[in-house]
Amino acid sequence: MFRKVLAVSMTGLLLSGVITATSASAGVSVSNGVPCPKINATTKVGSSVYKCAKNPTVKNAKLTWVSMDCLNANASYVKANNSYIAYNKKMPTTLADLDLKIAAEQTNAMDQVAKADALDLKIADFELKVTEYTASRQALLDDKANAIANSKPIATFTAAIGNLKKAIRLDTLSSANYRKAGKTVTTMQATRAQVVAQLAQAKDGVSQALSMRALVCSKGL
Fold first, then answer.
1. Quick check: 153 and 140 in contact, CB under 8 A?
2. Do 168 and 86 reside in the same domain of the chain?
3. Does residue 94 share a domain with residue 22?
4. DSSP 3-state assignment of 42?
5. Which pLDDT does position 26 carry in this prediction?
6. Is residue 148 situated within a structural domain?
7. Which of 50, 77, 45 is nearest to 66 (CA)?
8. What is the pLDDT of residue 182?
9. 28: which of 9, 113, 176, 194 lies 20 to 30 Å off by Cα?
10. CB 65 within 8 Å of CB 219
11. Residue 46 belongs to some domain of the structure
12. 118 occurs within a structural domain
């Protein structure tokens, strides 16, 4: 009889233990840092998905539940950091190349501006001649008494004025083109500044990605 009572008691204790263990297991709240049973196992809590993996923010991490938000944030951080490293690595060469081109273009711009200045002086001289020739032609036109005699010099002045105006238009265009070299230097300098700014932005992106990873990978989240 005693043995039967003992057996029943032991069975009751075992069943009680199983029920307790099951209840405890069922009562475990899944979150970052909670131990998990098997690598790559997944579970869903509400709208959040967790994976059995090593938390990327924990040194010498063991297998725990890690939210997919954490793992995705880590992937974004790794991508941003690798891009920054690659960009930063080639930056010295990129800047050196730009600096050489800017220096060469600055020298060229100085030559071009000198040519433009010379053309501007030439244009100013032509404009004075146009004014002078126009006045002389008008005086001949006003001399009605000698209209026939004046017809040839009038035609000469007219042709000269036309040629001078044509030369002024062409030289004005050439002068403007020469001065574009200075604008090219400005554009190249802006490009260089943009390259440097992009590196700073990439660095900020890494910092932001790291902060986001730390947030969504924090224990208990």
1. yes
2. yes
3. no
4. strand
5. 45
6. yes
7. 50
8. 83
9. 9
10. no
11. no
12. yes
Q: What pLDDT digit, counting tens, does each position of 51-68 carry?
A: 999 999 999 999 999 999
Residues 112 and 11 in one domain: no
Look up residue 114 and give its two tokens.
Answer: 């000198």
pTM of this prediction?
0.62
**170 Cβ contact list (under 8 Å, min separation 6):** none
* 4 and 102 belong to one structural domain: no
146-178: pLDDT as tens digits? 999 999 999 999 999 999 999 999 999 999 999
Range of the domain at 168: 74-216
Residue 164 belongs to some domain of the structure: yes
pLDDT for 180: 87
Q: Give the CATH number of the domain where residue 209 resides.
A: 1.10.287
Whole-number pLDDT of residue 118: 96
Q: Cα dihedral sign for 91, 93, 99, 101? A: negative
The percent of residues above 70 in pLDDT, for the chain, comes to 87
Runs of H (alpha helix) within the chain = 2-27, 68-142, 147-216
Does position 19 have pLDDT exceeding 80, yes or no? no
Looking at residue 186, its amino acid is T
Q: Does residue 165 share a domain with residue 78? A: yes
Report pLDDT digits (tens) over 110-137: 999 999 999 999 999 999 999 999 999 9
Number of domains within the chain: 2
21 and 129 fall within a common domain = no
In which residue are the tokens 């950091």 written? 81
Tokens of 34: 């909670």
* Separation CA 215–CA 202 (nearest Å): 20
Give the DSSP per-residue string, 136-180. Answer: HHHHHHH-GGGHHHHHHHHHHHHHHHHHHHHHHHHHHHHHHHHHH
Same domain, 97 and 201: yes
